[in-house]
Amino acid sequence: MRVVRQSPAMVVVLLALVTGGLVASGAGIGAPAAAVPAASAARTYTQIAAGDGHTCALTRAGKVVCRGYNAYGQTRVPTGVYTAITAGEGSTCALTRARTARCWGRFRPFREKRVPAGSVQIDEGGGVACVLNRTGKAICLSDTKGARTRVPAGRYRQVIVGDGYACTLSRAGKVSCWNLRSGPTAVAQGAPQGTFTQISGHFSTACALARGGKAVCWGDDSFGQTSVPPGTYAQVSAGGTNACALTRTGKVVCWGPRNAAAVREVPSGTFARITSGKYHACALTRGGRAVCWGSGFDPHTPF
Fold first, then answer.
1. Cα 81 to the chain's mean position, in Å?
2. Taking the model in full, what pTM does it have?
3. Any domain includes 223
């Protein structure tokens, strides 16, 4: 994807609620900004997901709001009421209250498919999407031929998908990964040993959070995104050229030397959730407000 970088200064956007104003179809990251719609009362979110160059958030009422790069229609949200979201490489996927999985944008492994009762998680990467239900059963589908979408037998806490790999976190806290295509990936070959409470995968990097709060990342380290700063964390999120984590007190920490905006100028305050994209990152405050920063996020199109 061609990304037009903004100025080195970090763009921190406190995403106030707006009424409408989605990015027009085909508007790239570097496209001229549209006029800012009039703000209304603050909208709050329960989930947020950063993708290649776009971000989507889920409101408490089940509405999905997307902003950013839209060359494939990944920010053009179909009508519906949603319960979970994920943002990938030019694609967005979500679970609906009608017990279906739906994807839109570049890849659509779930076009409109019934999923098991109690499905609570969805993740997508490189044309493969996986869904996990409350009993720990996972299913995966692919938008392209030849993908190894069969999930190993077991019950899981999480299933994640990246560029050519998928990983599961067992109920016992073990991480297992496999290649989705014929070629090997550094993530699938380098799954860490130990007991973990959370995993995250995006593009060619994956991260896991150990039971004691130590974070470990593996896979592509072209930008230093696997070099985790020492600390005790509550959540970790792998991105494309960076990775971020929340400390146990809710502070943001990001790393990846070449992405200066994500590394040196993270927002102040305390947060409850964090997500890393290819060149940017976003977080939700404890009150559900959204904040995004880094290259490729336009302050003139707030949430």
1. 19
2. 0.84
3. yes
